[in-house]
Design a protein that fits this description.
about 250 residues, alpha+beta, five-stranded mixed β-barrel, three-stranded antiparallel sheet, about 20% strand, RecO
């Protein structure tokens, strides 16, 4: 059918011509959607402000696969949750939300993925509500989204032989903790103490009580491992994550 509806999260948007935008969204039913939003940069646009990255919308589309680069057209949007406006007054939260949206854009495909959609919406909602520290929300989202995509790490037993932990090293290639015997030949390795392993497990499991009990040094160590694991599987790092790290380093300078 030429028209369809979906509940979508806006991932990103960029300028097209003088008044239009190309908007990338992830839909509950249709997966990733790229569509033209015509005239939304004009001050008279009825829904231009709603198409901000991070917002949750009910949207209607017109399918036109031939011409216009094969893009659909956004014909109507209704705001379900306006998260974008709740990010801009806090730079740490804003960069965290940007990292979540950038990762989703890189990771998700055109096929429907209801669990990925729910994870994305839940992370944006938690950031908007300041439900947990922003850095922990980002790291938890990255680990859980990668797990749903088929790259679930383990931070308890050895990923090669199954030997119970705790272990002191993580292999990016094998997908988590490795014991001393299996560490050689396991590819790129990173060290992690018991507290860091516990935090990584908590972030993957969504155990916020354990995660929020961690100290700043442990969180920083976990963030480095999550960033490296994400980069390994996405084949390049997330710009928003690096911006956030630079901001944290700058604030830590006396």
């Amino acid at each position: 059918m030429p028209n369809y509806d979906d509940e979508v999260v806006v991932l990103r948007a960029h300028v097209l011509g003088e008044a239009d935008r190309i908007v990338t969204m992830f839909g509950r039913q249709h997966g990733k959607i790229r569509a033209v939003a015509r005239g939304v940069r004009r001050t008279t646009s009825k829904f231009g402000a709603r198409l901000e990255p991070g917002n949750l919308l009910d949207a209607q589309f017109y399918t036109r696969r031939l011409g216009a680069g094969g893009l659909d057209t956004v014909t109507q949007v209704v705001t379900v949750q306006s998260y974008a406006g709740k990010f801009v007054d806090d730079f740490e939260v804003y960069t965290a939300a940007s990292a979540v949206l950038e990762a989703a854009d890189r990771l998700l495909e055109s096929e429907p993925a209801p669990l990925q959609f729910a994870q994305l919406v839940g992370s944006l909602r938690d950031l908007a509500r300041r439900a947990h520290p922003a850095g922990l929300i980002v790291d938890s989202y990255l680990l859980r989204a990668l797990a749903l995509a088929g790259w679930e790490p383990t931070f308890t037993n050895c990923t090669r032989c199954g030997r119970p932990g705790p272990h002191a090293r993580i292999s990016l290639a094998t997908g988590g903790a490795v014991c001393d015997e299996d560490a050689p030949g396991s590819g790129a390795l990173m060290t992690a103490d018991v507290d860091t392993m516990r935090l990584l497990w908590a972030l993957l499991a969504g155990n916020w009580r354990v995660a929020e009990a961690s100290d700043d040094d442990t969180r920083a160590a976990a963030t480095r491992i999550v960033a490296a694991y994400t980069q390994f599987h996405l084949e390049r790092g997330l710009r928003s994550v690096e911006v956030g790290n630079q901001d944290r380093r700058a604030r830590d300078v006396p």
